[in-house]
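hey so i finally got around to running both of the ones u sent me last week. sorry it took forever, my laptop kept dying halfway thru and i had to restart like 3 times lol. anyway pasting them below in the order u listed, first the sequence line then the structure token line for each. didnt double check formatting much so if smth looks off just lmk and ill redo it

first one:
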Amino acid sequence: MSTMQARILHRPIERDWREVYAFASKPENMPRWASGLAAGFTRDGEDWIADGGPLGTIRVRFAPPNTFGVIDHTVTLPTGAVVENTFRVVPNGDGAEVMFTLLRQPGMDTVAFEADAAHIARDLETLKQLMENGEETSS
């Protein structure tokens, strides 16, 4: 068994971690900050279907709502490949820290890995800005 190269991308957010989790964990809100999902989601049973852009149609299954800040999700690509994503919101003082663990997938070159990391960093920054600018968690 081998491990994959990993990079943890994170951002502090000046807002209560529970409010950040409540907003970020709703698939309906994700197109507002996760640019890869800008076209939005359609619910399909326990899964969500999205246009993954150049990846094609993707199927996403999220961890159930929880009190631990876990927004892990499994993405099934059109090829049938499954990518496990770990995404957490944790307390950081009076605010939050959001953390996404990016794993370099088999066959992914350095350029693609770095582009993925930059993309995720931008999305986390967008989430930070939304939350710090008073985005309502009930949206």
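and the second one:
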Amino acid sequence: MAESEQFEKGLEVRRAVLGPDYVDGSLARADEFMMAFQRITTEWCWGYAWTREGLDRRTRSMLNLAMLTALGRPAELKLHVKGALTNGVTVDEIREILLHATVYCGIPAGLDAFKAAHEVLKAEGAVTGEPAAPR
């Protein structure tokens, strides 16, 4: 089946933000049942929402971090922390986004988000993981 133009646009953005290895791996592992989800995600999320002109990718990444914290989705948040770094969001900004979301979403949601983000930031070499100096 030929893919739609919306799918192709979405695939381009999805690969740019999340990395081709992750995206291509997700598509390669999708059987007929799961491919329906891959299509809707690529067309709607990445092909429609992420390609609109109203917000840049950096801002969209920041919103995703806050929304995924609110939804309590640390596994998905990990993926989007890496994407946020790709889109130019700094470690300090990620910390501030998560602190702000914690105030509105609660400590348990914030803790999950911080743990997930920290794991990715350490893996990406963006933070050392060394204990902070006492204040």
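quick thing i noticed on the 2nd:
The mean pLDDT is 95.
anyway thats it, ttyl
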